[in-house]
Predict the 3D structure of the following.
Amino acid sequence: MSRRKNIVLIGMPACGKSVTGVVLAKALRMKFIDTDLLIQEKAGKGLQEIINEDGIDAFKQLEEQVLCSVEQDNAVIATGGSAVYYDSAMRHLKKNGVVVYIEVSLETVKKRLGNIKTRGVAMGKGQTLDELYDIRVPLYEKYADITVLSDNSCTMEDTVERIIEEIKK
């Protein structure tokens, strides 16, 4: 049986990586992996708990370890928004995967995010969402093989359809 490439989803928190990933995996009859859940499983606690109790550096170290340890074929992999901070992890994921950047505007992120303080977002002390967005977008663009816009007028089903169309090209 031939190995099927993975589809690796990257993008800002609240862009829809996890929800879109589940539906995309079902549509393409692939496995689904959420690396945030793998991090929680490995740590035995939630993302925000890791950040609060162990610090942002410990969280980032754990996230990079988990991303670099993913060995999978034929899977949709939803990464955390900060996955693009680790060149080694992104190179590892790209070896057997096509990287899809789910692009949303800053306004959309703010509208969807709710309380960022409980979400487990890797942010520096005093860092704003605007600053985080400005830092991450160039990294998403750098690693993306495909970019799919998924803003307010776009439903999750539209996003899944667009990803499938782009992958088939």
